[in-house]
Write a structure and sequence with these properties.
about 210 residues, 2 domains, mainly alpha, elongated, repeat
Length: about 210
Amino acid sequence: GRRGLALDVVAVSAVIDACAKAGDAARAEGWFERGVAEGIEPNIFMYTSVIDAHAQTGSGDAAAQWMQRALDRRLSPTLVSYNAVINAYTRSGQVERVREWMQQAHDAGCAPDLTTFNSAIHACARRGDVAGMDRLVGELEAAGKRLDQVSYNTILDGCAKAGDAESAERWAAEMRAAGLKPNARTYAGMVSAYASAGGMERARAWF
């Protein structure tokens, strides 16, 4: 290491994680390879941090390749690892790949959590796929989970993308019924949905 200090797995993992949070995948990979070159046996946390770095830039295929490298080493990815790959594909709007990795997580014994579902809902929202969001909510509820404010706001964004004000109204009503208070993003989503559907008069009435 620099200044004669030997790198260990904890130090390298921390640096890779910092690179991931900065969305600097190239540096994350560089530190990973440097650690390996200095004799460090990479663990799943090192791999997950590199995957997360690619997730920050929506590089789904690169994230999946790093996951495969971890699997090739016979490491056991955690749900955090799978969620990072799912997030990467969410950011690039690849719903089919999101669904594939949700299934892979489930098959590996890592049951999708609310973070997983919110990512998948976001992927559908980017496309304005209201039916896809509805299906995911059904799966989420069947798994015994409940939507949170992030879930509802993401769904409203998707309704706006689709120009579906009626669905937006339905979800906003369900959000209130669930005891969740609308916030600025909620109202922005509703206004956008009405605007997309050409119903600004209804928007004013709703507020």
